[in-house]
Amino acid sequence: MSDLPDIQLPPEAHALLRTASRFETPCGDGTMVWHSWGQATRRPGLAPLVLLHGGSGSWMHWLRNLAALAASGRWLLVPDLPGFGDSAAPPRGTDADVLPEPVEQGLAVLVGDAACDLVGFSFGGMVAGFLAERFPARAVRVVLVGAPGLGVAPEKAIRLRAWRHLADAAERDAIHRHNLAALMLQHEESINELALHLHIANVLRDRMKGRSLARTDALAQSLARLRCPVWAIYGREDALYRGKLDALREALARAADFRGLALVEDAGHWLQFERAAAFDKALLAALEA
Fold it and tell me: Which string of DSSP letters, residue by residue, matches 200-249?
C-alpha cells in the first residue's frame, strides 16, 4: 500500500513469512492482508484458528507462537487487522467495534461458513468478542489474551511517551523501550532487539488513531451476550490488571459460558512474546478442552 512507511522486518519475521501463505480480502478502499500456516498439515476435525493481534500491532505480535501452534496440527489464519500492518483502513471508524464486519467478510472468503476458534490479544480480544457476538455461527470458542474493555482500570494510569516528533533515532528507540516497559513487557531483559524491532515496525503502521473503547466495559457487555465458551489467558504481572485480578475474574465471569482464567507467571501484557512456551501450553489447553 502506497501510504505505508517503508519498514524493515527482523530476520525472524522474514523466515516465518517464507513458510506462510498470503491472502488478501476486501477492506475499505483496499485489502485486508492475512498470513496462514499449517493448512496442509492440520489435524482433521480441528477448527481454523484465528489469531487477532493487539493495538498498534500486526501478525508479528504472535511471532514466537506460530511454529508451535502450527506444529500442534492447527490451521492458523493470522491477519493484519484493518488499519494496522499491511492492511487498508476499515471503511469507517477507528476502533474495535468497526472491525468485526471486514474480519467476517475475510473469513467468509477464506474458510466459507466454517466455525473458528477466535483468539484475540489485547485490542484483538475486543475484536474477537464483538465478532463472536455479531456473527455467533463463526465462533466455536473465544480465547481472550490480555484483553481490555472490561471496565477494570489499572491503579495508576499508564502514560506512554510520544516519539513521532523526534528526529534522532536513538532518542526514538529510548522512548520505544520506555513504552514497552510501561505497558507491554514485565522484565527489562525481555525488551531485547527483537522486541524493539517488532514494536517499531508495528507502531509505524498504526493508522487507527483515537481508540477509546479499551477504557470502557464494552467487551464485558459483549461477553454477557455470547453463546460460545470463553476462556482467558493473562500475564500475572499485566500492567493493565496488576492488583486487579479479582476484579478481572469478576468481569470475565460475565460471559454466560466462562470456562476459566489461566495466569501465566512472570509475564506482563505481551505474554505470548515474553513467556511463549508457557503461553502456548495454556492456549492449547484451552483449545483442546
Answer: HHHHTT-------GGGTTHHHHHHTT--S-EEEEEETT-TTTTT-HHHHH
Give the pLDDT score at 266.
97
Q: How many CB atoms lie within 10 A of CB 67?
A: 17
**How much of the chain is in helix, strand and coil states, percent to nearest 5?**
40, 15, 45
Q: pLDDT at position 3, please?
A: 64
Average pLDDT over residues 173-198: 97
User: Which grid cell is 242?
Assistant: 496488576
* Amino acid residing at 174: A
Neighbouring CB atoms inside 10 A of 41's CB total 12
Ramachandran assignment for 70, one of left (phi > 0), alpha (psi -120 to 50 degrees), beta (any other):
alpha
The model carries a pTM of 0.97
The three-class DSSP label of residue 48 is coil
Q: How far apart are CA 209 and CA 225, in angstroms?
A: 28
Of residues 127, 73, 133, 95, the one with CA closest to residue 254: 133
**Predicted confidence band of residue 2 (pLDDT cuts 50, 70, 90):** very low
- Measured at the alpha carbon of residue 209, what is the angle toward residues 164 and 54, in degrees to the nearest 5? 95
Q: Which of the four pLDDT bands, split at 50, 70 and 90, describes residue 155?
A: confident
Asked if 55 and 240 touch (Cβ cutoff 8 Å), the reply is no
